[in-house]
């Protein structure tokens, strides 16, 4: 660009876009208003103070009728940018004149006695489109240096009207910046931008634009060839609080402390990951042991009976066949349990529709409540037609966990008149299976903890605390249902037993 521009006249910086400012001799703080000629919806940007008022008006009139201005953009509320607006309003003299600004600033601008209505960018999707299709886009740059500060971008000319950002302070002012402009802009930004972080947030937005020319409110205009490096230099600039030595020292100490904590956190997370994997393996082994204990006890009992009767020559072929068949069923269950746990976390497990009635019968056969506990009565209120969607073996494991706990309680308390009622019901949303007993219920202090991992009231030799925890995971995570427990009370509000309720949502 030529260095001998006549700044005593309006300067054309792009088609229909003019600098209409005033060169203040020996003043390092040059202020720049701009004019976008757009028919009777022309736009005046940052008109300035009363110091430049006469020159700005003269230059606008040299380009067009000042009454053609419909919009006045104010990038912030300071007097060096906005003080002349009331006098300019009088000269424009049109009822539809609008002040384009942010709602955070319109509250302050009114104190200049501005009378026009406001076009608040944050309430207009951050853009302005005139009736002939001319468009301006606005990017908010909060606290640079005003809370409601913003910049304006013309996507047609690729000019950024940047307000305070990229402003410079220099006694020997040049209309266009050169490669040394950062040194002139450095002091202004150090003093007027509140912090490096806030300033970089604004620069991050700006650098995404395709810009051919930056037209700031102060300093010199910046051509495309200098923009990339200038933004890079600006990003590394310490400004605002960062130039305070005490704050900068405290900030660096804070950053150092955060880095140390981040490193410690990474090491802790790695340790927790390793511990969680070990716990996961232990949990799986513990739950297998829980599921195996009852069938193994039955197999062991059957073998002892066979061995004892064999010694006294009392075995019949039918009895041998019956015992072997029962042991075979339980060995099959043990094998299926291993398969289920091996595939527990597999994402491609094949689900299917299965009969709840069939699953209940299979679980009862495995636990063998009536044979192991004399006097136990099982009441089944089931509908063989009700089916749910999932993995039947996993569902059987859930029932085995619940029924095995009931069996352990019956043995521990030596109950002779235990009743277990299993009820299946369905409504439009859910299929519900309820397992209720009269074994005295769950302690109030334990009711909220029975599904927690490793919680058990049993001796460690017979309980791991994993059965009900895994049961809840199967129902709620694998089958998308719910499993809960509650106590049952009689008419005199005496606790008589517990009830486990499984609800599975009906598939459409």
- The rough form would be described as elongated
* Fraction of residues in β-strands: 15-25%
Strand order of the largest sheet: 1-2-3-4-5-6-7
Under CATH at level 1, the class of the largest domain stands as Alpha Beta
Main beta-sheet annotation:
7 strands, mixed
Number of helices: 13
The portion of residues assigned to helices is 40-55%
| Rg, nearest Å | 41 Å
Q: Provide the low-confidence segments as ranges.
A: 459-465
- Summed up, the domain count is 2
- Architecture (CATH level 2) name of the largest domain: 4-Layer Sandwich
Please describe what this structure looks like:
With 508 residues, the protein is of the alpha+beta class. It folds into 2 domains: 11-242, Metallo-beta-lactamase, Chain A; 278-505, 2-Layer Sandwich (Heat Shock Protein 90). The chain has 13 helices and 20 strands. The chain has helices at residues 53-63, 79-82, 85-92, 103-109, 181-192, 196-206, 224-235, 245-311, 317-342, 356-367, 369-372, 392-413, 467-478; strands spanning 11-14, 17-19, 34-36, 42-45, 69-73, 98-101, 117-120, 127-129, 135-140, 150-154, 159-163, 213-216, 222-223, 352-355, 377-381, 387-390, 419-426, 430-437, 482-489, 495-505. The chain has a 7-stranded mixed beta sheet with strand order 1-2-3-4-5-6-7. Helix 8 (245-311) packs antiparallel against helix 9, helix 10 packs across helix 12 (392-413) and helix 12 (392-413) packs antiparallel against helix 13 (467-478). The longest helix has 67 residues, at 245-311. It starts with 10 loop residues before the first strand and ends with a strand. 34% of the residues are buried.
């Amino acid at each position: 660009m030529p260095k001998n521009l006549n700044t005593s006249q309006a300067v054309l910086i792009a088609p229909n876009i003019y600098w209409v400012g005033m060169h203040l001799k020996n003043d390092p703080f040059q202020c720049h208003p701009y004019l976008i000629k757009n028919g009777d919806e022309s736009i005046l940007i940052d008109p300035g103070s009363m110091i430049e008022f006469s020159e700005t008006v003269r230059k606008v009139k040299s380009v067009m009728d000042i009454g053609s201005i419909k919009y006045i953009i104010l990038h912030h509320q300071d007097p060096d940018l906005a003080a002349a607006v009331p006098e300019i309003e009088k000269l424009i003299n049109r009822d539809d004149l609008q002040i384009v600004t942010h709602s955070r600033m319109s509250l302050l601008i009114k104190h200049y006695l501005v009378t026009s209505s406001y076009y608040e960018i944050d309430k207009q999707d951050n853009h302005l489109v005139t009736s002939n299709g001319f468009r301006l886009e606005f990017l908010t740059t909060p606290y640079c240096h005003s809370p409601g500060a913003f910049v304006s971008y013309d996507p047609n000319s690729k000019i950024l009207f940047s307000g305070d950002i990229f402003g410079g302070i220099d006694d020997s002012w040049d209309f266009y910046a050169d490669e040394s402009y950062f040194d002139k802009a450095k002091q202004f930004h150090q003093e007027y931008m509140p912090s490096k972080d806030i300033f970089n947030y604004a620069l991050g937005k700006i650098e995404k634009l395709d810009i051919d020319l930056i037209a700031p409110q102060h300093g010199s205009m910046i051509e495309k060839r200098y923009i990339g490096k200038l933004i890079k230099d600006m990003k590394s600039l310490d400004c605002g609080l960062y130039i305070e030595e005490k704050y900068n020292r405290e900030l660096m100490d804070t950053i150092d402390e955060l880095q140390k904590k981040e490193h410690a956190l990474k090491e802790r997370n790695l340790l927790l990951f390793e511990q969680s994997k070990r716990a996961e393996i232990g949990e799986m082994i513990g739950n297998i042991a829980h599921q195996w204990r009852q069938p193994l006890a039955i197999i062991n009992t059957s073998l002892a009976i066979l061995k004892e009767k064999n010694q006294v020559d009392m075995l019949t072929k039918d009895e041998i066949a019956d015992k072997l068949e029962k042991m075979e069923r339980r060995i099959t269950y043990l094998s299926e349990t291993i398969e289920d746990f091996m595939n527990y976390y597999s994402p491609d497990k094949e689900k299917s529709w299965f009969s709840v009635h069939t699953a209940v019968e299979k679980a009862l056969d495995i636990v063998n409540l009536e044979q192991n506990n004399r006097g136990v009565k099982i009441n089944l209120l089931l509908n063989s037609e009700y089916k749910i969607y999932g993995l039947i073996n996993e569902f059987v494991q859930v029932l085995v966990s619940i029924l095995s706990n009931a069996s352990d309680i019956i043995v521990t308390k030596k109950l002779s008149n235990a009743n277990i009622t299993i009820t299946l019901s369905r409504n439009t949303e859910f299929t519900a299976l309820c397992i209720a007993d009269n074994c005295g219920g769950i302690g109030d202090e334990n009711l909220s903890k029975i599904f927690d991992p490793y919680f058990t009231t049993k001796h460690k030799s017979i309980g791991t605390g994993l059965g009900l925890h895994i049961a809840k995971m199967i129902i709620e995570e694998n089958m998308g249902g719910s499993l809960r427990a509650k106590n049952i009370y009689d008419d005199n509000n005496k606790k008589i037993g517990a009830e486990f309720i499984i609800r599975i949502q009906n598939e459409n």
